[in-house]
Design a protein that fits this description.
Largest sheet: 5 strands, mixed
Number of strands: 9
Oligomer: single chain
Strand order of the largest sheet: 3-4-5-7-6
Distance between the termini: 50 Å
Strand content: 15-25%
Number of helices: 9
Shape: globular
Structural class: alpha/beta
Amino acid sequence: LVKFEGKWVTQRELSILRGEWDSAWTHVTTHFRIKTNVSGKFAKRLGVALEDAWPVFVEFFGKEPEIEEPMQVLAMKHYEDYRKYCQENGRMNYVNATGFAMPAKRIVIGYDKLYSQDTLIRTMLHEGAHLFYGVAYRSNVPSWLAEGMATYFEGHRLDRKGHVTFDHRARQRMARLKRAIWARQIMPIEEFFNGKAIEFINSSANEAGLFYAQA
């Protein structure tokens, strides 16, 4: 038995209770304050992955954010939790995405769209790169560049404990790009440079996938 909010409960009961977003697990690392309703073990694993990524972010972006306290990471198990967050925070334009970053508030959000913890960690590393850059530089870049940089960190190997080894080869993106090349369906360069990721996400899943792959 373990104590939860003044009551003794079983591990199974605790898992159910923590599965509700309001009572989700929390885990604090050097640079991140993680909240997730996936599991307590996942919270620690995600923390390991993000901390492994931190020095790689520093090396790649050339600057380290000045933070007085850990940045918030919200990793949600259910779409409904994610949708509710978008609704309550005026981010309904991101409801069709798998996550997003709000550098001004030093928060990154994502949900387990594909029911895969490894994929959710990949999503959080992608969005974590957006957060890191946004907090470090406090400036915007064109969408193709922002997504190109973030997608760069999807290329990694992940072990059971959450440790990440980056090779920067986003294999799923590369496969999508190869298919487009063979089918001669590459997005025209003008459309690519002027496009915005969130607009593609909200209009066409196929175009969104191609945009990210080209980026």
